[in-house]
Amino acid sequence: MSEAYITRITKFLPNESVSNEEMEEYLGYINGKPSKSKAIVLRNNGIKNRFYALRKDGTPTHTNAEMAALAVQDLFKNNPAEIGEMDLLSCATSSPDQLMPSHGSMVHGYLPQADSIEVVSPSGVCCAGMHAFKYAYMAVKLGEKQKAVACASERLSTVLRSDQFEDEIQQLTRLEKNPFLAFEKDFLRWMLSDGAGAFLVEPAPNKEGISLKIDWIEGCSYANEIEACMYMGADKLEDGTLRSYKDFTAEEIQERSVLSIKQDVKLLGEKIVKLGFAKLRDILLKRGVTIADVSYFLPHLSSYFFEGKIDEFFRENGMPIPKEKWYTNLVTKGNVGAASIYMMLEEVFNSGALKKGEKILLAVPESSRFSYMFCLLTVC
């Protein structure tokens, strides 16, 4: 088998960054009033800035597929004709612009310079970006592709606008006592961000500069054990099953906010850290990797609230990671779902700080139905 390397990483962020103070100018006011829970949610998630692919009046500036294509094009900015050598396009998102055609096909449609190539569209939520990456990795590893592109993108700002939401959470006392309650509905308005990222995966490292050798990528799902936690386009029934939007009338979809993103916060608090990071502990043991081997730890966080929970788990299990090895850009980019891990790795990769031989551990938890993806990279 061939080896596989990330040789280039790019990102695309739409428009200017939006501060906490400006958010409601873009997302609107519920019932014409400022949010009463906004300050509490922002204090818990720690985000200061994010990006929206829309103007203050709600007019979209980019489609999801367009942002992904712009990130892909940027991989080839030094030689635009080279995009014609791309032989795989693997695109992920949790927020496609349409149900059909596939998201990957739409991204390909924005790339007329590309050839007629294989296109895949992994579905899911935060882990989808890692699934797209793993497909590209395996294709190169098997020797079937020579210049594979993986990308991930999100555009959720339009469904966060006030005209799409039910009444916000009003019980501030409960929010103060239990931060998990802030996640139920209103938290998503103050957390999610738009943007895209892309990796170029090749069978040989760069001749100049650094590359990232892909040592392994592993994932797991606990959907066989646990019901859905975060969902959209469905409603959760008392027995924990989901009822599809297809089984509601148009009136019911509107009344029940079936197309809004919702979170079962009780499940989130109980399961999100201990399930996935116990699995990471087992993977590292199986792979013969110790925490001491890791130079950089990049966890995808939906909120800084979970940073302490992950750190606590590591310490309790005898695998502490010093905080100076942690890296996340949640504070400046917000939660960009499937694209978050791409954006974090892009900043580290292009920082000039990496040294050959260092190892980077990626961790992507997904609360939707408790899926997790982990990856180890070596700088070369």
UniProtKB/TrEMBL annotation:
SUPFAM superfamilies: Thiolase-like. Keywords: Acyltransferase, Transferase. Residues 286-363 form the Beta-ketoacyl-[acyl-carrier-protein] synthase III C-terminal domain. InterPro entries: ACP_syn_III_C (IPR013747), Thiolase-like (IPR016039). Pfam families: ACP_syn_III_C (PF08541). It comes from the Bacteria. This is Beta-ketoacyl-[acyl-carrier-protein] synthase III C-terminal domain-containing protein. It comes from Dyadobacter endophyticus. The lineage of its organism: Bacteria, Pseudomonadati, Bacteroidota, Cytophagia, Cytophagales.
